[in-house]
Amino acid sequence: MVTRTSLESLNILIVDDEPNIRRALQALFMPEGHTVFTAENGQRALEYAKSQPIDVLICDLIMPGLSGVEVLQQIKRLHPNCVAIILTAYGTIRSAVEATRCGAFDYLQKPFDIDEIKLTVKRALEYRAHTQSLPSLPQEKKKTDKHDKGAASLYDNPLRCISPAMQEVYDIVERAADTRATVLITGESGTGKELIARALHEKSSRASGPFIAVSCAALPETLLESELFGHEKNAFTGATTAKPGRFELAHNGTLFLDEIGDIPPLMQVKLLRVLQTWEFERVGATKTTKVDVRLIAATNHDLDAAVKEGKFRQDLYFRLNIVTIHVPPLRERREDIVPLARHFLARFSAQNRRQLTEISPEVEALLLRYSWPGNVRELENTIERAVVLADPNEKTLSPALLPASIRHFIA
Ligand SMILES: Nc1ncnc2c1ncn2[C@@H]1O[C@H](COP(=O)(O)OP(=O)(O)OP(=O)(O)O)[C@@H](O)[C@H]1O
């Protein structure tokens, strides 16, 4: 049933608060000789994951306690090669798409059928076997090697979009790039804000310096502080050595603070001070550090509203918002959909050694009709999934390779 990637049986972890689903999946995989762990919540799942390797994670998206995405992120940290499939109820597709961004191979909408889950696990394992044999994964490099110029990847080669709305964005990028002005990039998740931040850096005279990206939402307050400002040895339990923060690492370059709307109030005060003086202290330090950094921030929240509700400091908002660039959602720039789809098709076909070079007219029509709540990221994931699911000698992307949510979308 499941294609093994090694001679050993697989360790499969099933996390769902519905006992029937746990039982059904266990009954499906156990007879194949796999070791199946079942957990009714995220906490229990993490206990398993800490004590044994996990090859496959099948996890419900919405559960009491830790969410499926949180479980996925923590298990991926423990077992980076684990393949994850998210189970989702009707109406939570958007979060499921987000889950694929956090490393899930795919998502399945409940009620799913047994063949569908078997096929998805099989494809996920084939994909894992294949990608593990590739020399390097540009997708993985992009989050870690932002300032490594040697790490040229397709990610560094985004498509120049053709829509008038994006022409306006590129125009502001050209004008604002080579200044010290702080830029606030707004737009829904997955629209390409980070790429715009990189373009601002690459077109500036700081281009030979580092580009450092931090996702403010990913870290709890205490970690965020030491991540941004660094810490001295023994500043807190576990700080066995001194460590520079992202501001220091970005010296003479650009610091990109993603999801700035999520930073907690105390950090907002600290950040404001840095933006006024470009000075700060590492956690536990008495000495002040000064840096030369260009700051770019991004948000997918309405910061104006957050200021009015008292959740985001107005003075910090003004400091960040010297130049604003709004990246429109994909549904408002449909001219970009097909060129982007072709761009991703070429990229993923090459990466996966597939032959797909064409998109059928039916697929074009479906892509143009769909609303793309996850924006360019969702389109990218859709095309990657289609490429992985295609037969090795298929040349044209056909509707059958698209998820049902796109094929049956009603505008
Ligand atoms: N013009 C483009 N060409 C190629 N890829 C693109 C383009 N625009 C966006 N993408 C891809 O879409 C995905 C989402 O882009 P990005 O991470 O920049 O979005 P974002 O708006 O910063 O998302 P979030 O708010 O969730 O952080 C990335 O994988 C990026 O490579």
Automatic annotation (TrEMBL):
- Cellular component aspect of the GO annotation: cytoplasm
Question: What InterPro entries does its record include?
Answer: AAA+_ATPase (IPR003593), AAA_lid_NorR (IPR058031), CheY-like_superfamily (IPR011006), P-loop_NTPase (IPR027417), Sig_transdc_resp-reg_receiver (IPR001789), Sigma_54_int (IPR002078), Sigma_54_int_dom_ATP-bd_1 (IPR025662), Sigma_54_int_dom_ATP-bd_2 (IPR025943)
Question: Where is the major localization of this protein?
Answer: cytoplasm
Swiss-Prot/TrEMBL keywords: Activator, ATP-binding, Cytoplasm, DNA-binding, Nucleotide-binding, Phosphoprotein, Transcription, Transcription regulation
Keyword Protein biosynthesis assigned: no
Single GO MF annotation: ATP binding
Q: Coiled coil located at which positions?
A: none
The answer on whether this UniProt entry bears the keyword Chloroplast reads no
Q: List this protein's GO terms for biological process.
A: phosphorelay signal transduction system; regulation of DNA-templated transcription
Q: Which residues form the Sigma-54 factor interaction domain?
A: 159-388
Q: Where in the cell is it found?
A: Cytoplasm
Q: SMART domains under this entry?
A: AAA, REC
Residue(s) carrying 4-aspartylphosphate: D60
Q: Where is the Response regulatory domain?
A: 11-125
What protein am I looking at? Response regulator containing CheY-like receiver,AAA-type ATPase, and DNA-binding domains
Organism per entry: Chthonomonas calidirosea (strain DSM 23976 / ICMP 18418 / T49)
